[in-house]
Design brief:
Shape of chain A: elongated
Number of helices of chain B: 13
Number of strands of chain B: 20
Number of helices of chain A: 1
Helix content of chain B: 25-40%
Oligomer: heterodimer
Structural class of chain B: alpha+beta
Strand order of the largest sheet of chain B: 2-1-5-4-3-6-7
Distance between the termini of chain A: 22 Å
Strand content of chain A: 15-25%
Number of strands of chain A: 3
Largest sheet of chain B: 7 strands, antiparallel
Strand order of the largest sheet of chain A: 1-2-3
Largest sheet of chain A: 3 strands, antiparallel
Helix content of chain A: 10-25%
Order of helices and strands of chain A: EEEH
């Protein structure tokens, strides 16, 4: 895996919820970031980098980068 | 301390039974001590043990719809707050649909189990709390357009701190639920279950040693993963697609689409919902964990239908999901979701089985009724003067399978809930049941027919009751499979006092949908009649065993007229409906 972990720096009053761009899962406190071909994607774990390159990207094409 | 327990196959079996019995005892506590019929009669809850990272060790899972939520709720709470968030005697409650819950009524409570200074496990209880506020009594607003109309949302917060009431949180909760006495009782039933789980787990650790019990839990998880992967390997690799239309979202009248591609590759299964409709305005959206429960459910149906593999987090590892955020299978804030759990989830299981029918046609079923047929009501009870509210459901037909007819009058597929006996129902609520039975010809014809649905007629005995409903499968019937016919759809009717005929709710009250509406006021003497959906048939009806068809006609399951759909007909015996 080529990605890296990024910890969220969030105040308790921040009620936003962040989802994995690959599987849709909640990302509570830290994201696994990796280059998905069109920029960096925000995912929940290295497993999602693996499934992205082994299934999602070949099946659906590259995803847009995280905003 | 302590008996020696080798963690060989025999020892693991002993430990698995011990864990499962703890979860079962926790469930009994909830059933025996709760106030609401949805817990003590309906059994709409599950009780569990989890490890210190939130992995499921053992369950008494009455309702499969909760499978996805249970481990993720605890794991994500741990990830968000860290293990240091928990202290001995704490109990955390959580019903946030965007953070791992099924829908707003579902509340998960978790209690850390410490042995000495060390956090070693959690006891957990998850259940459908019957009243959590929002715009409709029973907290099931079928026309809700955001989560704030659905009730009180609790992110993970401590309900108990160090064994003491977190009074400020309780005050907020009780002030926002319409039936705070029931909430008090039901929450304490859950707390009691957690306390029993904590005590029994600690006693088990005392008996066999903490390391043995904790290590045994991990080995059981690994064992289940290995067993389930071995089952998946036996499925033919490939991509299997299916698509379905859902009739409406409760707000508009347009259908929406769910698409799935099930990919079997080696020892893992991927369920990819890419291409499904964007989340809808009404409450038919699923949360992420609800979609997850559906795929677990479908995979277990085709790999281990008799639950021979210990159900724990190991069973979940070979299953992967792709549920695009903002779609009907993964609602994002502030989308509503109360009906997604009860009325989209069972259809997701049907959809997944339809896809898997291409891989393992002998192991799947035709569509179930696919709607919990939710009926909600509340008001002031004329005998007690107190406010009451209830969440009510009835059984529907299950789909026929390769082996047998679909079960009749069963709350499928996402739930193993029971109905509430009429005697209990009438004692608690001002509604008189006039008729209750199964519906002739409601199961789709097939080599194995679909299960029969149910019908009920009730009369209001209070000056007024506020009703809401969320029924589905009224316009798009449960589908048959491999030549089997569709099941009969649902129906919901009302007869005003003094009138002779039942009519639809949209005709009488002008609501947008005949089966999804909120806060209709019925008065004393008014009657409500409904029919839940029947199951789809499996296989060509002409191939049905003539003796089975004759028995169906004799029992009133199939009318003589409908028996003609089976080709040969039922023979000489007359049918008598019952």
């Amino acid at each position: 895996m080529k990605g890296h972990w990024v910890e969220f720096d969030r105040h308790w009053r921040d009620t936003d919820v962040v989802n994995c761009q690959v599987c849709g899962r909640l990302i509570p406190s830290r994201a696994w970031m990796f280059d998905g071909g069109r920029g960096e994607l925000r995912s929940c774990s290295p497993d999602c980098e693996e499934i992205y390159f082994s299934y999602v990207e070949p099946e659906h094409g590259p995803k847009e980068a995280a905003k | 301390m302590n008996e020696k327990l080798e963690l060989d196959n025999v020892g693991l079996h002993v430990l698995h039974n011990a864990f499962t019995n703890i979860a079962a005892e926790m469930a009994l506590v909830m059933m025996k001590t709760s106030y609401s019929t949805i817990f003590n009669e309906g059994l709409d809850f599950s009780t569990v043990l989890l490890d210190a990272r939130g992995n499921l060790i053992a369950e008494k899972n009455f309702t499969p719809s909760m499978m996805g939520a249970i481990p993720n709720t605890v794991a994500w709470t741990l990830e968000e707050f860290g293990p240091e968030f928990f202290s001995p005697g704490d109990i955390v409650v959580h019903n946030d649909p965007y953070r791992g819950q099924c829908h707003l009524p579902e509340h998960m409570m978790m209690k850390p189990i410490f042995l000495g200074e060390e956090l070693v496990a959690f006891s957990g209880a998850i259940g459908h709390v019957a009243e959590v506020g929002g715009k409709a009594p029973g907290s099931f607003a079928s026309d809700a357009t955001d989560v704030y109309q659905e009730g009180l949302r609790l992110p993970p917060v401590k309900l108990m701190e160090g064994g003491e009431y977190a009074e400020q949180v309780w005050r907020i909760v009780l002030a926002n639920h319409r039936t705070p006495v029931n909430t008090w009782g039901d929450f304490h039933a859950m707390i009691g279950a957690l306390n029993v789980g904590e005590r029994r787990f600690s006693a088990l650790a005392e008996r066999y040693g903490t390391e043995t019990v904790v290590d045994g839990g991990q080995r059981l998880i690994d064992y289940s993963e290995k067993r389930l992967r071995a089952e998946v390997v036996d499925l033919p690799d490939g991509k299997y697609e299916a698509e379905m239309q859902v009739e409406d979202d409760g707000v508009g009248s347009d259908p929406f689409t769910v698409r799935v591609k099930v990919v079997i590759r080696g020892d893992e299964v991927i369920a990819d919902f890419t291409g499904s409709s964007p989340q809808v305005r009404g409450p038919m959206n699923c949360t992420f964990v609800v979609a997850l429960s559906a795929i677990y459910n479908a995979v277990f149906c085709v790999t281990d239908p008799e639950a021979l593999i210990p159900r724990n987090s190991g069973c979940y590892r070979p299953v992967r999901i792709i549920a695009p955020p903002g779609s009907v299978v993964n609602v994002v804030h502030p989308g509503p979701s109360v009906g997604g759990n009860t009325d989209l989830q069972p259809k997701l299981v049907d959809l997944l089985l339809a896809a898997l029918s291409q891989a393992v046609p002998g192991r799947v079923a035709a569509s179930s009724g696919g709607s919990s047929s939710n009926l909600l009501f509340g008001g002031t009870h004329p005998e007690t003067g107190r406010y009451y509210s209830n969440y009510h459901f009835d059984g529907m037909g299950a789909g026929g399978t390769n082996e047998k007819d679909g079960n009749d009058a069963e709350v499928t597929r996402h739930s193993n809930c029971r109905n509430t006996p009429i005697e209990v129902f009438e004692h608690r609520y001002p509604l008189l049941t006039l008729e209750y039975g199964m519906v002739t010809d409601s199961g789709g014809a097939g080599r194995h027919r679909g299960g029969l649905s149910t019908t009920r007629t009730m009369r209001v005995t209070a000056p007024e009751i506020t009703f809401s409903a969320l029924f589905d499968r009224s316009r798009i019937a449960p589908t048959g499979l491999f030549g089997g016919e569709d099941g009969l759809g649902s129906l919901l009717l009302v007869k005003r006092r003094g009138e002779d005929e039942f009519r639809s709710f949209d005709e009488v009250f002008g609501v947008a949908s005949p089966t999804k509406f909120t806060n209709v006021v019925l008065c004393e003497g008014d009657e409500i009649r409904y029919r839940t959906p029947g199951g789809g048939g499996f296989g060509d009806p002409a191939e049905r065993d003539p003796e089975a068809l004759q028995a169906d006609v004799a029992d009133g399951y199939v009318s003589r007229e409908a028996a003609g759909r089976y080709g040969a007909g039922p023979g000489p015996q007359e049918g008598t409906a019952r």
